[in-house]
Amino acid sequence: MKSMKSSASSLLLRATLLVLFLQANGMTGQSQRQDKVENEIQEALRLETQYFYQRDISKWEGQWSHGPFVMKCYVRDGKYLEQMGWPVIQQSAKDYMKAHPKPEPVPTAMPEYKIEVFGKSALVSYIQLDPTQGRKREIRVMVKEKDQWKIAYMSTNYFTD
User: Fold this and answer.
1) In angstroms, rounded to a whole number, what is the distance separating the alpha carbons of residues 73 and 97?
2) Predicted TM-score of the model (pTM)
3) Bigger pLDDT: 88 or 27?
4) Cβ atoms of 40 and 47 closer than 8 Å
5) Closest Cα partner for 156 from 140, 132, 143?
6) Which of 49, 64, 100, 137 suits 155 as a labelling partner, its CA being 20 to 30 A distant?
7) If pLDDT is split at 50, 70 and 90, which confidence band does 23 have?
8) What is the SS3 assignment for 59?
9) Following CA atoms 106, 153, 98, 110 in sequence, which dihedral angle do they give, to the nearest 10 degrees?
10) How far is C-alpha 140 from the chain's CA centre?
11) What's the distance, CA 24 to chain centroid?
């Protein structure tokens, strides 16, 4: 009788350990997938910044969604600038690069990103130190198009220390 209880307890313990092991592996897999997605998003943002500072318009354009819903906003010194739609954003970048053709050093400090992923979209927030303008809060809405994360919304809010 004792051996039957012992073997039932042993079987229950083994089943419990197996379930816990499988759950832990599942969570690890989820965590690894989440890390992969967040790394892809961070890389897309890093490349967009790099291409802009290098004045490489064609590569910079590749980091953006070209949908009619895209938007760019700046808030600085109580002023608000809004650009709606890809043609407006694209022309603004071209005009800026034409007026300032000399490449600038690409920022090397990686910000601490806060990323929330919602399927094929994500909300990203971080603080960036701009060498000429000071600290700014950057907000991005990312969309996944053909397996590549692209910017759909950009907001740059300068701190007024």
Assistant:
1) 18
2) 0.77
3) 88
4) no
5) 140
6) 100
7) low
8) helix
9) 0
10) 7
11) 26
